[in-house]
Specification:
The chain is mainly alpha-helical. The chain contains eight helices and two strands. It has helices at 11-26, 34-43, 71-95, 101-112, 118-132, 142-160, 165-179, 181-192, and strands at residues 57-58, 64-65. A two-stranded antiparallel sheet has the order 1-2. Helix 3 packs across helix 8 (181-192) and helix 4 (101-112) crosses helix 6. The chain is globular. The two termini are 18 Å apart. 31% of the residues are buried.
């Protein structure tokens, strides 16, 4: 393991994962939760080209300034993350049919249960992920498959019940940060090199 990679999630990690999940969810034209996603995009630290952000500072050159990443690397890193999200979404579209609707229905039902803690939701997401892992392409890295299927499950639940988008988004970002953060960091770092 790279000694620079830790399991802790900092603000930049949170930002990277949020951008990745948001970009994945945003990709695809037949999105039944588009309005909810646009509203979420206005609340997140995402680039203006991904969803208008009302609290970014307009710079004198007409560009927008992000407060979350170093100014010099911010735009290129965000573009890399958006490209990764787009590529994963394209692969996800091909794998979409491998996720049983009954599994999505059950996961959506779990997310509608207001008495569940965030930890309980992550456990239900992990159980659903475990149930679909056998459908992944065998030639794909396990971590990539887990990342892809986690975001695909989130997209399918949000499509099933758009009102769950915020909860599903938050749980998905938390789950990825807890379980796949070193992989996400390396994925972004490798793409930037």
């Amino acid at each position: 393991m790279d000694p620079k990679v830790s399991n802790g999630s900092g603000l930049q990690d949170e930002h990277i994962t949020s951008l990745l999940v948001f970009g994945f969810l945003q990709d695809g034209s037949s999105c039944s939760f588009r309005k909810d996603l646009q509203a979420l995009g206005r609340e997140l630290p995402v680039p203006a080209r991904w969803g208008q952000r009302h609290d970014e500072e307009l710079q004198t050159d007409g560009g927008r300034h992000s407060h979350f990443l170093p100014e010099t690397d911010s735009e290129s890193q965000e573009e890399v993350i958006q490209n990764i999200a787009r590529q994963l979404a394209q692969i996800g579209d091909r794998m979409d049919r491998s996720i049983p609707q009954t599994l999505v229905d059950h996961l959506a039902m779990q997310f509608t249960n207001g008495s569940l803690s965030e930890e309980d939701r992550r456990e239900h997401l992990a159980a659903a992920l475990e149930a679909v892992l056998h459908t992944y392409p065998k030639d794909m890295e396990m971590e990539k498959t887990m990342l892809l299927l986690t975001m695909l499950l989130a997209k399918k639940v949000a499509s099933h019940t758009p009102s769950l988008l915020r909860d599903v988004f938050r749980t998905t970002v938390d789950f990825i940060n807890q379980n796949l953060l070193p992989y996400v960091r390396n994925l972004v770092r490798n793409e930037m090199d």
